[in-house]
Design goal:
alpha/beta; Rossmann fold; seven-stranded mixed sheet; 7 strands; about 35% helix
Amino acid sequence: MNPVQLQKEFFDEKAHQWDAQIEETTFHRLKDIFENDLPEIHGPVLDIGSGTGILIPFLRKKIKHNCRIFETDISSKMLRETKGKINGTNNISLVQADVHTLPYINVYFQSVICFAVFPHLHDKNKVLKEIYRCLSPGGHLIILHLMGHKELNAMHGNCDGIVKHDHMPPVEILAEEVAKYNYKIVKTEESSNKYLIVARK
């Protein structure tokens, strides 16, 4: 079984209890980051590895206009959890897809955000190419975690299943990789409780 299918099964199994594991402080920290650390977000927006839709309220508040948001995840059961939160909102699409081969046309998105997903991508370079293909000129790529790479790697190391060996490099190393694909690095930041790269096409 290929890595993507194994990940799908792993996250499908976790989906029903995913939200129960999210601490209240997570929402406060995301609110602070969206208000103070991120550039203005324009739509359409692609939320990669969207999980159960944790970013939806923050994206709605951050986006200036009622633009489309594409919640995209490998796990159909994660997206099923998301569906119950959007209350028939017509500007949010739920798309099950392998982000290594994004099902979107070229130069469509103004913003792509990868929150708490990048270590799980088995071919990060391919995903960076795919995101670049789908981004409009001047569009932003945001890679975000609520912990540094050491904390993140230790957490995954204590997990069972396919995520046990999922790894994140220091922010400056990943930023160098991102820049190789013609992105301009706008901002990098790493501490024990934040990992952020903002890049522009």
